[in-house]
Amino acid sequence: MQRMPHFTLIQVAPESRHRYLRARWHCCVRVAVALGLSVSLTACGATTVSLKPPTPTDATVMETCSTLKDSLPARLRGLHKVATNPASDLTAAWSDAANSIVALRCGVESFDTATADILSVNDVDWAPTQRDRGTSFVTVGRQVTVQVDIPATLRPEASYLVPLADAIARDDQRAWSNSLLMLATFVGTTRYS
What we know:
The protein is built from 3 helices and 10 strands. By secondary structure, it is α+β, with helices and mostly antiparallel strands. Strands 1, 2, 3, 4, 5, 6, 7, 8, 9 and 10 form a 10-stranded mixed beta sheet that branches. A hairpin with a 2-residue loop joins strand 1 and strand 2 (45-50). Helix 2 (59-71) packs across helix 3 (161-191).
């Protein structure tokens, strides 16, 4: 059975607004620390997310991740894309006014998925792993492995993967097209040389 989103309107009296905002800020910081993220906060949400980039050594991975980052959506189901610190083509993040953060890392190490549950979203397979404060999704069967961390406050988590899976699938199609073009060029030049 699918859970429907649920919204609560909170009205705060002007004289207690500072206590409410301070409590909300502390809650957001605790969630960010639990996710292993460091966040620069404003009244509108995070503006910068500290996210350690992976360290791939393959130039193809770097190029693929750079292309993927350029094709990622600016909005992710109401979350706005924010800067990552350090700035890297291997990381991306989205945040909302409540400082719920979705973090993406491209070029992470792949892991053995023989015993993992697999979730397929728009032709991209993901292996979910439950964490203390959310779920970590890692792509399966791709040349470049992508990890997306989604906090438990964002439900349903898989719905946040849809636009990301679309970008990954588009990027894969682009890579295959470029490979076929290079192969055709190579075959054409060697045949007539």
